[in-house]
């Protein structure tokens, strides 16, 4: 009885509330909790993800085709299928132009209707029925105006942002894999492998990247795939140095010696033990590498070495703003989107770096967060 009473007293806190059992937190969960303490970086992540999701759903709210059409008792879905003008009472079998006043009048007849997206323009839409000159300033019809070809600036910004982020994600993923692989092999095996790898990297990094881009752009037709391949050839070098340094430090730890004593192969030790403990610089640099990729694509497009027309691009819009200084809305809106994107990624990178550094995380926690 005394032991049972003592156990009940030990299981009860001084204020009468039962003690809760201690639950261990995984390292990934602990990093996420630290990341959430940095409010600026956390909200930057939310804004960036929401903006990217909105850009992926761009055709649903920025398109020159209706979402759904009801005409003479039948339903049509122009986003899914291309319909000829004859389907709506026209004379020509060509694809229907839903900006044509004739087609719109057919939809406004009794019993018919068309549900348009909020913005009635796609990134390459040319409104042949507009009576104004181009570039046109912001208006109710074109929220951020038009460029020198009559294309809607708002639509090109939405789709240009999507292209930039997708390009940055692909380029960052490829560069990260190559950088981790090269750095891991050099850092873990060391010796002649490390020296040979460093000399080869020094020779490779000495190649003029911009000149190679100019040469290949003049030989092949510019495309996103070509840019990804060319930039991936050099984008991994900086990261490999950090991974190499982490592997050189961690390969001498006791857990690596224990893994060798257990008979694990070198690749098993690299993958299971050394790599998870060397990922801090890799994860920390991801947002900054994405910023660099977006800036690279924007710069190449500005110079005319990037994606081909009419692919939407932030760099192409900046070039148009430079060529049309009186059309201030082109440069101002594009510069605002570019700066906001880079700032969001920078805030996310700072918060992620602080979350992975236990010393900074403890200081932030003591100070009540940012």
TrEMBL record:
Key words, A-Z: Membrane, Transmembrane, Transmembrane helix, Transport
Membrane protein topology class: Multi-pass membrane protein
Record has RNA-binding as a keyword: no
Transmembrane annotation, as ranges: 40-61, 165-189, 210-237, 286-307, 327-349
Entries under Gene3D superfamilies matching the protein: MetI-like
Low complexity composition bias: residue spans: 1-14
Chief localization: membrane
Subcellular location: Cell membrane
CC annotations in GO: plasma membrane
ABC transmembrane type-1 domain sequence ranges: 161-349
Region (Disordered): 1-22
Any Pfam family: OppC_N
Xref: SUPFAM superfamilies: MetI-like
GO biological process: microcin transport; transmembrane transport
InterPro entries: MetI-like, MetI-like_sf, OppC_N
Keyword flag Disulfide bond: no
Annotated CDD domains: TM_PBP2
Family: Belongs to the binding-protein-dependent transport system permease family.
Stated name of the protein: ABBC transport system, membrane protein
């Amino acid at each position: 009885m005394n032991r049972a009473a003592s156990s009940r007293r030990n299981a009860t806190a001084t204020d009468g509330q039962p003690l809760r059992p201690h639950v261990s937190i995984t390292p990934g969960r602990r990093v996420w909790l630290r990341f959430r303490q940095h409010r600026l970086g956390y909200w930057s992540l939310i804004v960036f993800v929401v903006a990217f999701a909105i850009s992926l759903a761009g055709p649903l709210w920025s398109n020159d085709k209706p979402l759904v059409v009801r005409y003479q008792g039948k339903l049509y879905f122009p986003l899914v299928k291309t319909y000829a003008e004859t389907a709506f009472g026209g004379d020509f079998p060509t694809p229907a132009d839903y900006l044509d006043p004739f087609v719109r009048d057919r939809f406004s007849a009794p019993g018919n209707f068309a549900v348009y997206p909020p913005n009635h323009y796609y990134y390459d839409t040319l409104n042949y029925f507009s009576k104004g000159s181009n570039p046109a300033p912001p208006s109710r019809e074109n929220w951020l105006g038009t460029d020198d070809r009559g294309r809607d600036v708002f639509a090109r910004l939405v789709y240009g942002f999507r292209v930039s982020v997708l390009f940055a994600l692909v380029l960052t993923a490829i560069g990260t894999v190559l950088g981790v692989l090269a750095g891991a092999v050099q850092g873990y095996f060391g010796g002649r492998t490390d020296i040979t790898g460093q000399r080869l990297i020094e020779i490779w990094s000495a190649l003029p990247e911009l000149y190679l881009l100019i040469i290949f752009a003049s030989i092949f037709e510019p495309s996103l795939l070509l840019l990804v391949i060319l930039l991936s050839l050099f984008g991994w070098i900086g990261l490999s140095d950090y991974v190499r340094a982490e592997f050189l430090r961690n390969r001498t730890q006791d857990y690596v010696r224990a893994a060798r004593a257990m008979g694990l192969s070198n690749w098993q030790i690299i993958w299971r033990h050394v790599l998870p403990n060397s990922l801090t610089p890799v994860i920390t640099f991801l947002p900054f590498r994405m910023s660099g990729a977006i800036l690279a694509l924007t710069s190449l497009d500005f110079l005319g070495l990037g994606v081909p027309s009419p692919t939407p691009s932030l760099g192409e819009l900046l070039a148009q703003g430079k060529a049309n200084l009186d059309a201030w809305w082109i440069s101002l809106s594009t510069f605002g989107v570019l700066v906001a994107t880079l700032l969001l990624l920078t805030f996310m990178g700072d918060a992620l770096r602080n979350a992975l550094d236990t010393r900074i995380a403890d200081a932030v926690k003591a100070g009540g967060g940012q």
